[in-house]
Amino acid sequence: MPDVNMVGVDDAPAQRLYFTPAIAREILRGARAKAKDRRITVSLDLNRSRAVVRVKAQKAILPNGIELSLNSLRAISRRGSKVFVLQDGELVSVERRGNYYYKLMATDAAPTLEISGVKMHRTEGCCPYVQAEAIVRTVVRPGDRVLDTCGGLGYTAIWAARLGADRVVSVEYDMDVLEVARLNPWSEEYFFDSRIDVLADDVTSFLSREPAGSFDAAVHDPPHISRAGELYGRQFYFEISRVLRSTGRLYHYVGEPYTRRGHKDIHRGVADRLSSAGLEPTYVEELAGFVCTKRR
Cα separation of 9 and 15, whole Å? Predict the structure, then answer.
């Protein structure tokens, strides 16, 4: 288990440029135009803004003046949903190999994190970033002290701060996840907003050290139950309930209602355990999780 520490750096990173297979194909299509000096408007920060790329001869000229060969973009165009970042003049995929295989995965909006083939956010018909806002709005109020149990890419913590939380404590055990988050342009506020404390720690150990009634609200968005069953257990729910104030609120992502084997009703078991821990759960289908209030 890693030592507890604050994860952050002193200065914001220099502007990075990002490429996905879709962006590479868009530039290549523009390069086929007949004009000698072609200009293609694309996003180079994973759908946060738009920039102009010039194509001249067999090179793409980026806004910062760096030139990329069209052959390098052709190679990227065949790489599925991977994300590449330009570092020291070279395109490097945003991925990590540790206990699992981690990669930043492009979407039509904000990226998601994929761990060994499993996406950590819902992406079909929704944007992970927008979904995080909707989730946070169910439980966070201005002035709250908020616990984010499984930090991930930091979207939950970012929205809690944006919506007025006085302090957000975001716990993330997996250092590989944090390293991917550092390279995600949508996660910058996670590391540079002074209201967000990012802790590299095991959330169960963290909770055991926290005094009762420490938080006004909590967002619990764990990996699937098949990978992190202890984070769906009765004892864990008791600890969450204990650190919430008497008026505390909890959102708990659960996801699909059935396991693939045996069709066990996960929702019913989660609801029963939450209730036994002193929480009143209400399932919100569009958010695929339970919104809970602490029973007085």
Answer: 15
